Amino acid sequence: DTGVSQNPRHKITKRGQNVTFRCDPISEHNRLYWYRQTLGQGPEFLTYFQNEAQLEKSRLLSDRFSAERPKGSFSTLEIQRTEQGDSAMYLCASSQDLVGGEQYFGPGTRLTVT
Amino acid sequence: QKEVEQNSGPLSVPEGAIASLNCTYSDRGSQSFFWYRQYSGKSPELIMFIYSNGDKEDGRFTAQLNKASQYVSLLIRDSQPSDSATYLCAVSGFGNEKLTFGTGTRLTIIP
After folding, report:
1. C-alpha distances in angstroms, B5 versus A16, A41, B90?
2. Which candidate, A94, A103, B9, B104, has a CA 20 to 30 Å from the CA of A26?
3. Hey, which residues does A95 pair with through a beta bridge?
């Protein structure tokens, strides 16, 4: 049973560039979540999908952020016109479609905006 | 007021002793409670979850939940140096599956 995978693991980009991250959830999980974590803080919720439907977006998710899960399998998170404040670890998690279903995290993508 | 509060630590515990980690939450509608372990530079790893008042044991770990006091704790028995990590408490609500995390407690096990 493979876990959640994320690519790339590290991304360094210059301010103003666009970046895209990919997440592949655990195969039988139909819920997929994106979180962002900065140093010394717990992960903060960004958005989540049930199958291909995006059910909730955080106020943290500005217009520069967009997430998709077109076929209910993998998901992408795109950040347009990156800013230095976007530097963080971007975490993806997945869970089964159960109330209180446990979320399992991928290894994360560390973004550095220079 | 933060929604989920944890002491940031560091908490230092001798090897072989019991480590006790605490978490309080503000939303009385919270239904599910999780403990994650996070090593430096790594992603969170789920170690315990609890949904009902009382204790839940899994190996050396015991999670305790008191919904009336809005309090959840994690006990680690026979602490090992490999338990040194940051422990994150997370909660979610019924019909609202996003996790709200505390800032984590950094635990150091002293050999």
Report:
1. 35, 11, 10
2. B104
3. A31
Residues from chain B that touch A93, judged by Cβ atoms under 8 A, are: 99
Phi, psi (5° rounding) for residue A81?
50, 60
Contact A100 B92 (CB under 8 A): yes
Q: Which of B8, B49, B103 sits opposite A102 (nearest CB)?
A: B49
Give the pairing of strands A53-57 and B61-66. Answer: unpaired
**CB spacing of A48 vs B49 below 8 angstroms:** no
Residue-wise pLDDT for A24-46, tens only, equals 999 989 999 999 999 999 999 99
Residue A91: what residue type? L
Got the DSSP string for chain A?
Answer: ----EEE-SEEEE-TT--EEEEEE--TT--EEEEEEE-TTS--EEEEEEETTEEEEE-TT--TTEEEE-TTSS-EEEEE-S--GGG-EEEEEEEE-SSTTPPPEE---EEEEE-
Query: What pLDDT is stored for residue A61 in this prediction?
Result: 84
Q: How far is A84 from chain B (nearest CA, A)?
A: 20
